[in-house]
Amino acid sequence: MNFQKLNNITGWIVFGIALIIYCITFEETASYWDVGEFIAVSYKLMVSHPPGAPLFMLLGRIFSFLSFGDVTKVAYWINFMSVLASAFTILFLFWSITLLARKLMGISKLHELTSEKTWVLMGAGLVGALTYTFSDSFWFSAVEGEVYGMSSFFTAIVVWGVLKWDVIEDESKANRWLILIAYIMGLSIGIHMLNLVTVPALGLIYYFKKYQPSRWGIIAALAVSVGIVIFINDIIVPGLPSMAGGFELFFVNNLSLPFGSGVIVFCALIIGVLVFGIRYSHQKDKPVLNTFLLATTFILIGYCSYATIVIRSNFDPPINENAPKDVMSFVRYLKREQYGSRPLLYGNYFTAEPVGVIYGASVYTKGKDKYEITDRKFEYEYDASHKTILPRVWNAEHKATYESILGLKDGEKPTFTQNMYFMFRHQIGTMYVRYFMWNYAGRESDEQGADWLAPPSWFEKVPQALAENRGRNNYFMIPFVLGLIGMFYQFLKDTKNFAVVGLLFIMLGVAIVVYLNSPPVEPRERDYIYAGSTYAFAFWIGFAVIAIAEFFNRYLKNLKTSAVVATMLALSAPTLMAFQGWDDHDRSDRFFSVDSAKNYLATCAPNAIIFTGGDNDTFPLWYAQEVEGFRTDVRVVVLSYFNTDWYIDQSTRPAYESQAFPYTLSLKDYQQGGPNDYLPFSD
Hints:
The chain is mainly α and about 675 residues long. Among the domains are: about 5-210 and about 475-585, no CATH class; about 340-405, no CATH class; about 590-670, no CATH class. Helices cover about 60% and strands about 5% of the residues. It has 27 helices and eight strands. The radius of gyration is 27 Å and the shape is globular.
């Protein structure tokens, strides 16, 4: 059997294993956090929290048809969508590992592959892919209807696509892969922006294929890659709608044309510029410009899934978060303005006191026949003596926690050294490295704040409650050590592609930590954010098989036997992870979230109002009402939304059997930015 056929068959076998495992362990109903919301908005094509996930919603709607009218099975099939996407992630990871492993073994042509080398490659792909299959963070996301399993699939297929492009010698055929990758990236905007972070690493692959590497060449390639990230993240995603908003404002307010006229003209201009540019670059034989313009076009085609958000919002569905009905409100929705902002490169310490207010752009709201100014954006100005570059301890709401971590007295200003200590010790150490080690070393328990299992804790006698905790997983650091072996082996044997995997690992882990600049306390463990980093590390775990096989071959003098021995030894990692992690990842018999939601609703009187505070109070209730139609006479009011005009406005309309709220104030009275944003009280 030739390599390509065996590579395909083995890849599909690994896919089958992952699919079976996830099918056995996935949750059949709406679990806590965002899953209940995503299932509800997918089922009825409603509007989720900013910045939305319209493609996930559309795909979820398709999968919901498999319930064939049984509303109790809708959650089952939308969760299964994540199961399927996650299994495909494992498939493309396997193929990506074998593609890079060929380079690691110095195999540039398929005819150079002997059966012995093929055994080594299959072992590397098998071990790396299966280890990631059973990694804590990815397994968690794979068995619920959240965006992270689907996002991982798009990330994996983009990485595989670039590696596939790399081995194609015919440039005209290779460029088709670049266009496909651009389209997938455009589609992924409607899921999650994770795979955009992979661009710098993928840019290196492009550079190494096209040019003779040099120090300044690598720097230039990284700079161009970062430019592409900025182009998509800042210019395309929020930038184009913002420019469309400028056109809309001018055409409606200045030229007195109908609503939507500015957006139509702007879209026509963009399409015209792209058509002209593509035609010009083709006629003038400018392949780089042509490829760039085609890639941009396909990114925009994929990005068009966001039209669903505006279309559905205008139908006033029961769940219509932020109500992005027009281009102005849609831009605010995309930019997640309701969540505020965090300083990145320069900003204040948490000890800073506001000394003034800096007003920015006006906020426009759709009126009767034009857009009206209803508010102005603003930010506080702080004393320059309490500002710094790379501010990490910035959020005054967490003053006590910062002081506890840094050993500061009440009111004491942190130094820059302490600021950096917090970044490395807490943000990178506690909020990333701890999560990473959960996946490949072991986990103390499933309690909030639980540590990873270091060697001194392996055989430590612990309280019975902790010893019996299902989240206590001890891998004896075997996967982690295998990853280190593969990492150093690739560094020695294939430095160029070590840089690719290394950059992928950093960009999907530490770089996200630095960019997010999280406060010291989160409402829950956020390890799923960094699952991409554990994905990159799985490459090195796979490469460890090659290193171990090469070591044994020195003594056995038989590469095939060495490959089998190395694979069997390395398979101890995913096997141990599967046995240890099964009990805390098996959600096949969990129904508490929806059962408790129904109990809440069932205790209410007819036509009652129930007030909820946050995600876990709210989303299971939304699911019970919107999907299963349970107690739709009860109105759920989310207190954290109830200070916004768009949410109050929605409560003035009836929903199913619940009646509209009879307010005595008009829309103008409670409009954000209006006279009643706050009411001064004098005793």
